[in-house]
């Protein structure tokens, strides 16, 4: 299902929308890398850096347990404090706020302080801004309230779990209804996510847009894999939390040929149990467990791999898949909406049912064929190139929305 057209906006180009200088934007997010090497919301930062080329941009994000270090030449970042520094644990861990709440129920006590601090910081920083740009529904509600008080239009981008749970979670539905009421535009990062929202909440249809994420140039510089090695090297980059279902991959590895190895990059509460499972199944020596790596290191890990595997139970439009495509690496992923839309059956990778380790093992065996693996990799990179999936293009599409809303305000 495609998004409905609204006359005078979808066809607007930067030349067609009156520009009175760069629009002034406040970006709100609960995840953002606050120091070198951080992996919290890396894709938000990449979008922010691209937006800073076409907008006057400031970022508002929650503080973490360590003081942030921000490089010169990057977007200006304002951190809001909501607890003594050692207790600022809600936002920047693996899985973000939902996982922090599931792993420690006492973290819920921080939520009122978190929301009040973000609300107050947003109120102060929103003065004089043309548009408030929120990432995720919780920020959309905060920005929406401030936007209503200040008369400033608000754009919210939904990126995954907040939109994926619309059919199963009453809290998610109420949050999205508030976003629909308070925000001028609601952006999703995939057609599947937008269609799901449109079906569940038809009243949102006239505010919905789809703007895919992009990829950074270093991934497009990775060379395709070469024939010759008998080893099949798998890579998985994921938070070690239940939703990512990494245990399915460990079980599939145990069903695969001994020449299949896995590099697992991630952190989270399931690491000890995954290592124990790998030991019990006799594949611990074939898995390299690594913590999250600095974003600039990921192209090298993709260059050293043959296939990316993502066994998640739920996803939005994961950037790691786009990055694997840009690096000419095929992807094995679960057959869920956000991934099916990207991977396609036997187009840029292979799909398997959620939680089915035997089906995943069969996919791994199929990609032992170098010719198939190579062709899927070629298709993957061509998809990135044909769709023009760069951060600069994503940023320009957002800038068109911002200019349009500013001209109407």
Keywords:
Rossmann fold; 7-stranded parallel sheet
Report on the architecture of this protein.
With 409 residues, the chain is an alpha/beta fold. It has two domains: 24-214 and 390-408, Rossmann fold (3-Layer(aba) Sandwich), CATH 3.40.50.2000; 217-387, Glycogen Phosphorylase B (Rossmann fold), CATH 3.40.50. 40% of the residues lie in helices and 15% in strands. It has 16 helices and 13 strands. The chain has helices at 42-51, 96-103, 111-125, 137-150, 161-164, 170-182, 191-200, 217-220, 246-254, 271-280, 298-303, 319-326, 337-343, 357-366, 370-387, 391-408; strands at 24-28, 56-62, 76-80, 131-135, 154-158, 185-188, 208-210, 232-237, 260-265, 287-290, 307-310, 331-334, 349-352. The chain has a seven-stranded parallel sheet with strand order 3-2-1-4-5-6-7, sandwiched between helices. Strands 10-9-8-11-12-13 form a six-stranded parallel sheet, sandwiched between helices. Helix 10 links the parallel strand 9 and strand 10 (287-290). Helix 3 (111-125) packs across helix 4 (137-150), helix 9 crosses helix 14 (357-366) and helix 12 packs across helix 15 (370-387). The radius of gyration is 21 Å and the shape is globular.
Topology overview:
Blueprint: E1 24-28, H1 42-51, E2 56-62, E3 76-80, H2 96-103, H3 111-125, E4 131-135, H4 137-150, E5 154-158, H5 161-164, H6 170-182, E6 185-188, H7 191-200, E7 208-210, H8 217-220, E8 232-237, H9 246-254, E9 260-265, H10 271-280, E10 287-290, H11 298-303, E11 307-310, H12 319-326, E12 331-334, H13 337-343, E13 349-352, H14 357-366, H15 370-387, H16 391-408
Parallel strand pairs: 1-2, 1-4, 2-3, 4-5, 5-6, 6-7, 8-9, 8-11, 9-10, 11-12, 12-13
Helix pairs in contact: 1-16, 3-4, 4-6, 9-14, 12-15
């Amino acid at each position: 299902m495609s998004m409905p057209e609204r006359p005078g906006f979808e066809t607007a180009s930067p030349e067609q929308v009156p520009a009175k200088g760069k629009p002034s934007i406040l970006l709100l997010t609960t995840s953002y890398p606050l120091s070198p090497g951080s992996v919290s919301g890396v894709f938000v930062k990449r979008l922010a850096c691209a937006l800073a080329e076409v907008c006057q941009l400031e970022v508002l994000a929650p503080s973490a347990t360590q003081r942030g270090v921000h490089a010169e030449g990057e977007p200006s970042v304002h951190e809001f404090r909501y607890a003594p520094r050692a207790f600022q644990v809600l936002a920047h861990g693996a899985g973000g706020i939902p996982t922090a709440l599931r792993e420690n129920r006492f973290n819920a006590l921080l939520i009122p302080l978190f929301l009040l601090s973000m609300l107050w910081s947003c109120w102060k920083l929103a003065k004089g801004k043309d548009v408030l740009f929120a990432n995720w529904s919780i920020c959309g509600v905060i920005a929406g309230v401030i936007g209503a008080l200040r008369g400033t239009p608000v754009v919210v981008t939904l990126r995954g779990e907040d939109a994926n749970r619309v059919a199963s979670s009453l809290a998610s539905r109420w949050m999205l209804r508030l976003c629909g009421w308070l925000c001028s535009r609601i952006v999703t990062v995939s057609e599947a996510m937008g269609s799901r929202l449109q079906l569940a909440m038809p009243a949102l249809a006239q505010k919905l847009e789809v703007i895919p994420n992009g990829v950074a140039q270093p991934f497009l510089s990775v060379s395709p894999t070469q024939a010759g090695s008998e080893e099949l090297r798998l890579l998985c980059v994921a938070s070690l939390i239940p939703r990512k279902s990494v245990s399915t991959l460990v079980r599939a590895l145990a069903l695969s040929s001994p020449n299949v190895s896995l590099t697992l990059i991630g952190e989270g509460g399931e690491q000890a149990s995954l290592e124990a499972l790998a030991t019990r199944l006799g594949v611990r020596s074939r898995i390299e467990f690594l913590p999250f790596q600095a974003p600039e290191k990921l192209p090298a890990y993709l260059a050293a791999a043959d296939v990316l595997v993502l066994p998640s139970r739920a996803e939005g439009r994961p950037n790691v898949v786009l990055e694997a495509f840009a690096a000419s690496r095929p992807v094995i992923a679960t057959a869920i909406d956000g991934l099916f839309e990207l991977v396609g059956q036997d187009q840029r990778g292979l799909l398997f049912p959620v939680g089915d380790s035997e089906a995943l093992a069969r996919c791994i065996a199929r990609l032992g064929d170098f010719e198939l693996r190579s062709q899927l990799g070629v298709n993957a990179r061509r998809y990135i190139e044909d769709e023009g999936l760069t951060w600069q293009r994503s940023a320009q599409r957002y800038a068109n929305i911002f200019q349009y809303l500013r001209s109407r305000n």
